[in-house]
Amino acid sequence: MRWTPLVACLAAALLLLAPAGAALASPCEAPAELLDSGMPLPAAERAIAEGALRILVVGSASVMGPGTSSPAHAWPAQLAANLRDGRPGLAVEVTVRGGRGLTVAEMLPILQGATAPPPHVVIWQVGTVETARGLEPDWLGGRLTEGLEGLRERGIDAVLMDQQFSRFLRANADIAPYQDAIRIAAAAAGVPLFPRYELMRHWADAERIDVERAPRAGRTAVVDQLGECLGQALSVLVLRGAAAVQRN
């Protein structure tokens, strides 16, 4: 394998997610298959090679980092920090746009809005509001396809992020059809899916990060840890997507 700076950066990032041992596993340890979609991110690869990467995060409330001790612990800020740490000298700019209760239809104007210069990558967090409101999964899928096609036409890479793991949501809504709609839209558009739901469920089942069952006094620290781990995992997915371009 050609040991390029990007591949070296990816190797360093993967070490952050690899458990050192069963008893000493990092809170952020995650199954490798969840972070390897196999989908390339060509715009990200070119941007990293040129030394500057612009990312736009679009979504509902969770993109703003509610419950964290500071914005620096929200996952978009942690994504930027991990990319900078893993790729010294890379200028990383992460812009966040969204708000509580936004549906994918309400996010489309954000995706379509004129930005100068445009992002290289859009991370689009979707599905929670639609699931909670009981909107039609097919409607969700149609809006996702519309948004992803628009980004592709502009030469912008996209990453879809699905719902947060929530026992309450799972108990009160049929989440599976919405997850299917997100997976199908991502596969049809050839873009990576960041499986936030499965990652959070893995960490909760392993009793590493479980926001719902955290004691009130310690909940902020757990939310901070979640933001740090999601940002770390996203940095691996972005670097793998960029490295996939070199392999193809």
List the helices and strands and how they pair.
Blueprint: H1 5-17, H2 42-50, E1 52-59, H3 75-86, E2 91-98, H4 104-112, E3 121-125, H5 128-133, H6 137-153, E4 157-161, H7 167-172, H8 176-189, E5 193-194, H9 196-205, H10 219-247
Parallel strand pairs: 1-2, 1-3, 3-4, 4-5
Helix pairs in contact: 1-10, 2-10, 3-10, 4-6, 6-8
Keywords: Signal
Protein name: SGNH/GDSL hydrolase family protein
Signal peptide: 1-25
Outline the structure in words.
- The protein is 50% helix and 11% strand.
- It has helices spanning 5-17, 42-50, 75-86, 104-112, 128-133, 137-153, 167-172, 176-189, 196-205, 219-247, and strands at 52-59, 91-98, 121-125, 157-161, 193-194.
- The chain has a five-stranded parallel sheet with strand order 2-1-3-4-5, sandwiched between helices.
- α1 (5-17) runs antiparallel to α10, α2 crosses α10 (219-247) and α4 packs parallel to α6 (137-153).
- The chain is globular and about 45 Å long.
- The relative contact order is 0.20.
